[in-house]
């Protein structure tokens, strides 16, 4: 009997895993919390694992071109972070609004809101494209780039910023699917987009057969092609219909009132991300004064961190969807219980990552470069990051809970204090005034992000986010 029960349990778990990957029509406000978390978190984790795999593969191939090429990627990403902040801020609002409408069983309004989000994304991408195409060299000079980066790497910046609309739309449309509960669709799109990207990277960077070597510019072209295919796939699925959301051609029209509401809801999220991302720009500016090796070491270590913590972000994204849908279904206590469960799972996972960073930091950096100074710098940051990850786990989940509820203002105020008023001045003081160089930047990040994690969790426990209307 026990063997039969064990076999049945194993089959049941395997079936749920297949359901999570394929996507289901499950009502996440009605099933058990563990099942809801599992069905949403699995595809979200796999989606972000693929995203981070691309990030690591990309920097692996670019790393073969030298530290200046890696620095080009790092400095360009400081501007892309501005784009990401807008894309992620919009995505937070989109996820919250779509999740709330789906929780209310108002699928028609959910579809119309999805259309407004896509149109808004296209509008937002235009100024970034203009800046990238016509002012790439000026932007790199502004960030303190060396001669090689400005003269040889500007093509990478042109492609990445000029074609930014595919990046932005990929973010926004996947946020639509996640908010609706179609996390499996978002996962499949990213796997295909990044799979194409990874295949094209070495071909376009180093050349293959009749295809000439394009150097670092080839990496940007590969990204645009992969992301572009992903966006076309998203639009096709959205029009044909996923498990929880479908857009009819009759709904593809501008709705000023809905778009303005979306802009209003997203302002807090955009400001939240702008504050966080621009603080990173200031940190990279400090590191660029120290030298290209410092920028390269930081860039590689950040890519490694992105790769390893993406499962934690996948879990956190599941929290945003479940909070939004359960608030829409008038179940605030269930929404809160979701956050505590996911936070605990997140903490266990990131403690494991901390051990890996602490004991194998040098070996991880050596995968991407043979330059000893770059290895030492990157390894140092991974070690320092390992000290704070158990707190960072709770910060990720609690912030996503606020965002899923539509309360994007609270994390914005928190970020303003901890990232702008604490992190940046402290990094400058330690790195430049006390001459700790890159170590000063790394310890400033450790202090500010540990503090912000503890404070955000304390604010979450007060529960005001449960009263938000979107």
List the helices and strands and how they pair.
Elements: H1 2-22, H2 33-63, H3 67-103, H4 107-142, H5 147-152, H6 154-162, H7 164-180, H8 183-206, H9 216-240, H10 256-290, H11 292-328, H12 332-366, H13 372-386, H14 389-405, H15 409-433, H16 438-462
Helix pairs in contact: 1-2, 2-8, 2-11, 3-4, 3-6, 3-7, 3-10, 3-11, 3-14, 4-6, 4-7, 4-10, 6-9, 7-8, 7-9, 8-9, 10-11, 10-15, 11-12, 11-13, 11-14, 12-13, 12-14, 13-16, 14-16, 15-16
What does this structure look like?
- With 470 residues, this protein is an all-alpha fold.
- It has one domain (43-467).
- It has helices at residues 2-22, 33-63, 67-103, 107-142, 147-152, 154-162, 164-180, 183-206, 216-240, 256-290, 292-328, 332-366, 372-386, 389-405, 409-433, 438-462.
- Helix 2 (33-63) runs antiparallel to helix 11, helix 12 (332-366) crosses helix 14 and helix 15 packs antiparallel against helix 16 (438-462).
- The chain starts with a helix and ends in an 8-residue tail after the last helix.
- The mean pLDDT is 85.
């Amino acid at each position: 009997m026990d063997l039969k029960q064990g076999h049945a349990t194993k089959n049941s778990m395997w079936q749920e895993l297949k359901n999570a990957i394929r996507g289901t029509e499950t009502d996440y406000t009605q099933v058990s919390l563990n099942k809801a978390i599992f069905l949403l978190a699995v595809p979200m984790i796999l989606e972000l694992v693929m995203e981070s795999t691309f990030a690591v593969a990309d920097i692996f191939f670019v790393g073969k071109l030298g530290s200046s090429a890696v620095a080009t990627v790092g400095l360009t990403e400081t501007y892309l972070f501005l784009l990401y902040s807008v894309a992620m801020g919009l995505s937070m609002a989109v996820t919250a609004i779509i999740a709330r409408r789906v929780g209310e069983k108002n699928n028609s309004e959910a579809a119309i809101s999805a259309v407004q989000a896509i149109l808004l994304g296209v509008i937002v991408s235009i100024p970034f494209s203009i800046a990238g195409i016509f002012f790439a060299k000026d932007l790199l000079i502004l960030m303190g780039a060396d001669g090689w980066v400005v003269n040889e790497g500007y093509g990478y910046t042109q492609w990445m910023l000029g074609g930014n609309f595919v990046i932005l739309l990929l973010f926004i449309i996947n946020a639509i699917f996640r908010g609706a509960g179609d996390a499996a669709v978002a996962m499949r799109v990213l796997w295909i987009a990044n799979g194409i990207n990874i295949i094209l990277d070495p071909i376009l960077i180093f050349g293959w057969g009749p295809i000439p070597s394009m150097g670092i510019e080839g990496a940007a072209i590969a990204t645009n092609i992969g992301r572009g295919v992903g966006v076309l796939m998203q639009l096709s699925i959205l029009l044909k219909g996923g498990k929880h959301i479908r857009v009819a051609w009759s709904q593809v029209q501008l709705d000023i009132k809905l778009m303005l509401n979306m802009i209003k809801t997203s302002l807090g999220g955009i400001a939240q991300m702008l504050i966080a991302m621009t603080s990173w720009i200031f940190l990279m500016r400090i590191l660029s004064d120290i030298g290209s090796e410092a920028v390269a070491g930081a860039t590689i270590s950040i890519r490694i961190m992105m790769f390893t913590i993406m499962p934690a972000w996948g879990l956190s994204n599941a929290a945003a969807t479940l909070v939004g849908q359960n608030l829409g279904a008038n179940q605030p206590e269930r929404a809160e219980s979701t956050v505590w469960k996911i936070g605990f799972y997140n903490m266990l996972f990131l403690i494991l990552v901390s051990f890996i960073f602490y004991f194998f930091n040098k070996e991880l950096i050596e995968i991407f470069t043979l330059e000893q100074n770059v290895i030492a710098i990157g390894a140092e940051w991974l070690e320092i990051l390992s000290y704070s990850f158990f707190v960072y786990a709770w910060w990720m989940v609690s912030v996503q809970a606020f965002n899923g509820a539509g309360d994007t203002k609270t994390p914005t105020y928190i970020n303003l204090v901890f990232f702008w008023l604490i992190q940046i001045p402290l990094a400058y003081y330690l790195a430049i005034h006390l001459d700790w160089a890159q170590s000063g930047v790394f310890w400033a990040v450790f202090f500010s992000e540990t503090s912000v994690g503890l404070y955000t969790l304390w604010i979450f426990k007060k529960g005001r986010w449960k009263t938000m209307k979107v």
